[in-house]
Amino acid sequence: MSSLTAGPHFIRNSVNPISRAHIEDKSLNPKGVFTLPKGSEEKTWHIEPAGVHGSIFRNGGAPTGTKKEGNKEFLFAFLNGEEPSAWKTEHVPSAGKNSYVIRDLHGKFWVTTGIEEQIEVKTLILNPVDPPKYPRDAIFEIVKA
Q1: What 3-state class would DSSP assign to 93?
Q2: One MF term in GO for this entry (predicted)?
């Protein structure tokens, strides 16, 4: 089983980087985390242990968490002291050596909904099989930077 270590990483879905946008406003408002086009410059993720609760994922130096917009939750980087989420990762060996699903403590998963779209954090409906079969849009490659 592959396990993550603390430190700098890159996160991708297939060949697409997962990162904050390259152009952001100068405010301290939360910044969205997106699926970027292939070949885009990636901001490094820093994974820090958060005890038994999982890990804090930082992108562009800011901790990440969810924020509700309408009836959906999305992934944001927090710049103004908002409470970050602790994320748990689960290795998905059938998808590759560095493949993981990322979920919060309530069981909601990171899901990419398309290129240049913000990462949604939502409940997945999975068939009761062991090991679980996750959709490709919920599997992320996490590699050391």
Answers
A1: helix
A2: serine-type endopeptidase inhibitor activity
Query: Which is nearest to 35 in space by CA: 56, 12, 63?
Result: 12
Residue at 2 is within a domain: no
pLDDT, tens digit (0-9, with 9 covering 90-100), for 95-140: 999 999 999 999 999 999 999 999 999 999 988 888 899 999 999 9
- Report which of 38, 100, 37, 30 is spatially closest to residue 59, judged by C-alpha positions: 30
| pTM, two decimal places | 0.95
3-class DSSP state for residue 95?
helix
Length of the chain: 145
Give residue 74's domain range. Answer: 7-144
Indicate which CATH number applies to the domain containing 101: 2.80.10.50
Tell me if residue 137 falls in helix, strand or coil: helix
From the CB of residue 82, how many other CB atoms can be counted at a distance below 10 Å?
16
